Structures are given as C-alpha cells and as structure tokens.
C-alpha cells in the first residue's frame, strides 16, 4: 500500500517518484505480450530505434528512451493500455505531438509511452450548440478549419497550432496570441473523458458551464499529464468576428512600446492580441519569413482588434493615435487577409527563426505583471550582458508573458551558462510577482524551480490532490513536482510565508 | 430552527482563520452572508460556524494589471463598487449579489448570472487563491498574473465545493474594463420560441453579453444585453431590433427588467424549491417541457437559451425533485437544488456520476475527517456514519 501521507513533499522538495512500496517495474516480455493482446503487434513498439524516436519532446535537452511505446486507436484501447500498466505497476506518459517545451512528455525510465496520435477524429462539429467533440490527437488548427465553413472557430491559438494536439493543449492549458481577450484552454473546454491511472474512465465537466459540485475539469486542465489521459474533449466554438484590424507598429525603444501597451489598457481597449518583438528577434524572423518587419527598429508591436465593425473602426483610430503619441516610427496596417497572415507569420515563426542567427538557443517562458514589463526587460538585458550571452525577446505583451530566447553556442562551451541564465530569468519573473510559466508548463524543465514560487505547503497540497487521482504516482511521474532525484537536496528557496509576510503583495 | 447551539467564530485575518480551524475540534460550517444557506445538501449539525464575513476587504488592487486580490468574506456588491471607481469590474452578475452575497460564497456555490454567456463564471476569472484546509494548512495556488500555468489550478476544486474541502480565504481575480454603455433589447417571445429567436440573436454580429428568457408581469420576453462604447452599443442594439424585432428599453425599464429577472432567480416561493440545471442548449426546450409536465407547472422560470442553463421553481416534494434531477441527468446535464422551504428534505443532486468516486478521493485527501461542510455534497460525498470527528 502506498503511504499517502509520507508522499507529501517536505522541505520544498516533493517526492513524486513511484512509491517505494510499488515493486520495481517489471518491463519484461510479459508486458509487451499483454499489450499485443489488445493491440496489433505493429502498434506495440519494442525495438530500440522505434522507441528512441519518442525519447524527448520539443525540449530536446532532456532525453530518456522509454521501455515501450504503444499506439492505441481509440479510447477503449487507451483504457486497456492503462489497465495493463496498472496491473504491472509500470509508470506511463501520455504523448500528443511532442511539441511541448518543458519536457512534459519526456518518457520515464522503465515506463511506457502511450501516444494518442492515432486518436485523430473530429467526432462532431455541432453548429447549433457551437461546440466540437474531438479525440485528443486532433491538431489544434484542424478544429478551426473544420468549424470555419460554419462561421465558427476555436479561440486558443498556440503558435504551434498546426502541429500540437488538443490533448496536449488540455494538459498544458495552452494559450496563444489571442488569449488576451478570449482566455486560455481552460476557458474553452466544457467536458472531457479521462482515463485515470487505474484504468477507470470518468467524465469531467458537463455540457454547460453549470457545475454541480467541485470543478474537477478545471483541476485536470493544466495538470501536465499527471492526473490521467484525456481521451475525448468537448470545446466551445466562437463566432468569427465581424471585423479584424491589425497594425504592426515600430517604436524607438522597448520602453515606448511598453508604455503604449499600458495606455491601451488604460483606454479600456481589450485587443484580441498584443505581441512585442525586439530587434534581435525581428532580425531572425525577417531573415526566415520576409514578413516585412523593420529589423533595425528597437521594438515593434503587433496589435489586433476584432469585433463589431463600427466599434473596431473607432477603437482602431484611438489605438493608432496612442501608438503615434509614443513616437511610433512606422505604422503598417495590412488590409488584405493575406498580408495580415504574413505579419503573423513573422511573429509565430520567431522561435524557429532564431536558429538562423545562433547555433543553439533556449526558449524561456515566464510571466510578470504587465506593468513591470519594462523593468523585467532591463534586468534581462543586464543579466545577459553579465553572462556574455545575447537574449532575443518575443512576447505576449498584453498579458506580460515573456519568451526570452537565450542564444548560445554549444560548441563554444556556453551551454551551462545559457541554461543558468535562462533559469535565472524565469525565477526573476517570480521575484517580480509573476510566474515561472505562462504556457509551456513546468514539466521536467522547471520542476526544480517550483520552490521559488510555491511553499512546501502549497506543493504539499497539490501533491495530496495528485495522490487522490493517482495513489501510486504512475501517471507521468517526476514531472511538475520537484523531486530529490531530479533536483538534489536543494533546499526550498521559497522564503516569505504568506502569513508571516501579511500577504504576497510585497512581492509585486 | 431546532438546531443545537453552535458557537460562531468570526476571524478577521487569515491567521485567525487558521487558528480557528486548528483550535476548534469537530465539524465546521462555513458561512458567508447566508444568501445560499439552504443551497446544495442540507448541512449536518456542525460544532462550529465559521462566519467569514469578518474576513473582508480588498487586499491589493493593481488597476494597470487589471487584477485584484480580495478577502473571501467581502460582499461582492461592495467590491464592484470600489472597482467601479477605477472603471473596472468583475464580469459576473449572480442574482444574489443584491442580497449581500460574499465573494467566497458566490465562488463556493459556482453561482453565475446572465453575463456567463460572455464571461463564464467566477471560475473563469479567478487567477489565484489562498485556502485553509481542515488541518490548518495554508496553501496558495495560481498567483497575481492572468496567464499562469505553474502548478495545479487547485483553486478550481473549491469552485462549487459548497463549503467542503477547504476554506477560501482570499481570491485573486482578473478584471475587465467597465463598458461605457449597457443597452437592453427586449423581444416579446413565448418560451417555446425562445431557442430559435436566441439563435438568430447569436448568429447576428451583435455580440450580446447576455441573452435571457424571462416570463414576468411585463410579459414573456427575451432580454438581450449589449455592452460596448456609447455609440457602438446603441448602434448594435438598433441593428438587432431591425433584424429580430422588439425594442430598446429606456434605462429605467432595462434596470427594472433585469431586476425582475434576478428576483425570479433568487425567489423563495412558498412550498416550492428552486431547481437550477444545465443541458446542451438544443435540449433545453425539451427538458423544460418535460419538467413542466412532471411537476404540474414551473414558476419563476428564467432560461439562458444559448448556454443551456435554467432556473425554475418546482413543488417542494422529494419525489418531484428526484424526478427532475433524473430528467436532467437523462439528457446528459447537471442539476442542483437551491432555495427550499426550511426543513424540507429534498434531494440536492441527481444520480452520482462515475466521477463521484474521484470526488470522494479528492475530499479524503483534503479533509479526511470531513470536518468542513459535512452533508453539503451528499449523497455524492456521504456524511460519515458513526461518531463525529
Ligand atoms: C514552435 C513552438 C511554438 C509554441 N508556441 C506555443 C504557444 O504559443 N502557446 C502555448 O501554450 N504553447 C506553445 N508551444 C508548446 C506546445 O506546443 C504546447 O504545450 C502544446 O499544447 C503541446 O501539445 P502536444 O500535442 O505537442 O503535447 P506533448 O508535447 O506531446 O505533451 C505535452 C504534455 O501533455 C501531456 N499530454 C499529451 N497528450 C495528453 C492527453 N491526451 N492526456 C493527458 N495528457 C496529455 C504529456 O504527457 C505532456 O506532459 C509551442 C511549441 C513550439 C515547438
Ligand atoms: C450571524 C450568523 C449566525 C448563525 N447562527 C447559526 C446558528 O445558530 N445555527 C446554525 O446552524 N447556523 C447558524 N448560522 C449559519 C447559517 O444558518 C447558514 O448556514 C450560513 O449563513 C450559510 O451561509 P452561506 O455560507 O450559505 O452563505 P453564502 O455566503 O451564500 O455561502 C454559500 C456556500 O458557500 C460556502 N462558503 C461561504 N464562504 C466560503 C468560503 N470563504 N470558503 C469556502 N466556502 C464558503 C458556504 O459554506 C455555503 O455552502 C449562522 C450564520 C450567521 C451569519
């Protein structure tokens, strides 16, 4: 029997390894045989080369070859696979498209990867009720494509939307450029079917926002695959807005761009999106996409308004006036949808494009209160200078979500310095009253930083909930929670206790 | 009431709250303003009532970040008033706000009003929380920023927990700008035609903030709330009238119409119980017709045809209420019982879904002795038999 109380994190480092009482994972031929009883042989991958292609997600620095990979084709097969894992006491990791950027889908040693890539059917586009019912392996963009003929779309739009799955979005509570106005995955998922660690199947949420009893759906969303495997998702679809207006505005300084965002908020305008890029990221992106970015401008904003035509028009005028007041050096207003998409391509391709100006780079993801954007950028620039490394910045400025890209050269031996700088930046965000992650999740990458943001009591309560769902910690173990194995005996860094400090406001 | 004497403790700080939970042995009932005291399951007699109205006031408001941290016992109306000075608001509008409901009480009951169509409920606007568990553990989740995926979104499990699982001490909320103008269009309409009409409203570019059907003294009609800029909201409302008929209400009439709507939602009609449910919108008309037949007539009917949520009053009879829950469950929906006559023994929820086992496991992990809100989520979380904790 797992000892639940003993499992709670102590001293800021939570143990999330499969409990010691669980017999050592028996990954022998019997396991593969049991999977072949429920799946065709070619969907049970045991060979080294096949397994190796699942060794990491989008964060390639963390690798682990799994003992086995299975490719179930429907929800029943997923449940059957999970039950086999339960019977053998083996841990498992759900996997969507593997685009995650926090090592969330990295396999565990002696564990099974359960890929949902074959569960790719759009089960229903319900126009009358404005919702879509999806299998978890459906790509995010496919939802909007299927809804588009009906004048509907799915709002959350991660930059990776062509290649990431709705199941991965649910696990990460993914956001995107347009989440400032429309909210995140959690605001758009109504109902989910989930296979729990023991193989039982439950439905979380319901056909409406109306809840009878606690919101378990909301708890599951963003739990990074540690509470179960989602096998069906019902999402809300929104009506395509009447008008969309976009401006690409160059600014003489980062501060001027930041102040512009502040004034837009103060003017009670809620843009659908406000994105900022600095000159380094524009240089990279322009080289890759030719989107029309001004590479020598210190900063640019991409601002989009959508909604009823008259009001958008009036707000757009107001908006461009605010930009001009802050010394915008160029206002590019794409008129055709195609031109607009080109601008967005310049933004969305920024991560990958950085590969053109640096042999290696780390994508960071942190959040600060929007009013502290200028401050955090100044601090990041200083830290980069001290470390002797360049940092490019691309971010969702409207909600303070930064994506600093730390550029380095592996061959020049800069890896460790880059890694440290990147971690320091995420932890700086917490110091400024923000968060370790706005959308990429904690996964393996940031588990050891969790004590910077949360006290051991905070983490302990999360872990109690984890054990309620999964008493043996077999569901994506070692992620999200700091473990001694992963982090060493690093003492918890979280200092001010909320009660002693009369509230967390001091950290703002 | 024949309730045995219980001691009421009124903490004014989170520290006090924690001390009260640790110092008092036995079971505890959490009380806000008492506006939903008879919602959900009938609470088992508790040894202590924790009156949370002493834990009141804004902790910090950052207008530039559009966030606010608030003590859970703060009357919601008071919060809105203070935020209003900065032209900001929490974009929810449950009917019982006018009765003095607290933020924590609204959150714990997962309550929402007409604007849920556009903004959802408090669950969609809460970005962080401080909670106190029955063992005195103080835990925070989320934070002060709108976008944040670090750690579990623990706050969500207390949304709709009705005073079980943990005490909500503070919440951090995301704010929205107060719109310059709010205009209401009223379109006369029978309930049977409300689904079609509401769909036409939704399909138009009006972008309504709320669409509600209400049968009242003013007649049966669909109320459509349009919010936006001074000229924009007005123009959109006029376009809507051109498209579907009806009229723009004068400000006083609009206020009265929504007030009458809220009054129906929070009504306490004699010998009747208030039944709240949600089903997939296209099933709403059919389920309402069924309930109408089952119960011998619904009163105080308000419906949200585009979200599938409705509030109705039914006879305060255990069999009738149980049948109503079953009908909603058969349609794949969820239901719960709200106001009811004092002492009435009525089923609060429908048949337990498979996830009830999971809910019990979560409850056991957070409050193993069921000290908080015992009976509130029965029968999904049955009160323990035998001696009290
Ligand atoms: C270029 C690029 C741009 C990106 N831009 C954004 C962005 O703008 N916004 C954003 O939010 N993210 C972004 N991401 C990150 C990533 O795309 C998202 O986190 C995405 O949701 C991951 O989906 P996936 O299908 O690839 O999941 P995976 O990487 O396969 O898995 C991610 C996590 O989800 C779990 N998981 C997967 N499927 C399930 C399931 N069915 N049930 C339960 N758990 C499951 C896994 O165990 C893992 O912990 C970006 C990534 C890249 C590479
Ligand atoms: C002055 C006073 C004296 C009372 N005396 C007695 C008495 O003698 N005997 C007796 O049996 N009862 C007594 N009560 C309790 C009363 O009968 C109701 O049970 C109580 O007011 C319930 O209010 P409420 O919390 O439902 O109201 P709401 O504020 O509407 O709360 C609704 C629900 O939310 C929960 N809730 C409220 N705030 C929080 C929070 N911060 N965190 C988590 N959950 C929360 C509640 O438990 C309830 O389930 C008294 C209450 C008050 C205010």
UniProtKB/TrEMBL annotation, chain A:
Cited InterPro entries: FAD-bd_oxidored_4_C, FAD-bd_PCMH, FAD-bd_PCMH-like_sf, FAD-bd_PCMH_sub1, FAD-bd_PCMH_sub2, FAD-linked_Oxase-like_C, FAD-linked_OxidoTrans_Type4, Oxid_FAD_bind_N
Cofactors required: FAD
FAD-binding PCMH-type domain mapped to chain residues: 62-240
Region Disordered, annotated ranges: 1-27
Keyword Iron applies: no
Gene3D superfamilies xref list: 3.30.465.10, 3.30.70.2190, 3.30.70.2740, Uridine Diphospho-n-acetylenolpyruvylglucosamine Reductase, domain 2 (3.30.43.10), Vanillyl-alcohol Oxidase, Chain A, domain 4 (1.10.45.10)
Swiss-Prot/TrEMBL keywords: FAD, Flavoprotein, Oxidoreductase
Keyword Hydrolase: no
Protein name: FAD-linked oxidase C-terminal domain-containing protein
Species of provenance: Actinomycetospora lemnae
From TrEMBL, chain B:
Domain of life, source organism: Bacteria
Organism: Actinomycetospora lemnae
InterPro entries tied to this protein: FAD-bd_PCMH, FAD-bd_PCMH-like_sf, FAD-bd_PCMH_sub2, FAD-linked_Oxase-like_C, Oxid_FAD_bind_N
SUPFAM superfamilies hit by this protein: FAD-binding/transporter-associated domain-like, FAD-linked oxidases, C-terminal domain
Ranges for domain FAD-binding PCMH-type: 1-178
PANTHER family in the cross-refs: D-LACTATE DEHYDROGENASE, GLYCOLATE OXIDASE SUBUNIT GLCE
Protein's UniProt name: FAD-binding protein
Keywords carried by this UniProt record: FAD, Flavoprotein
Signal peptide positions (record): none
Pfam families, per the entry: FAD_binding_4 (PF01565)
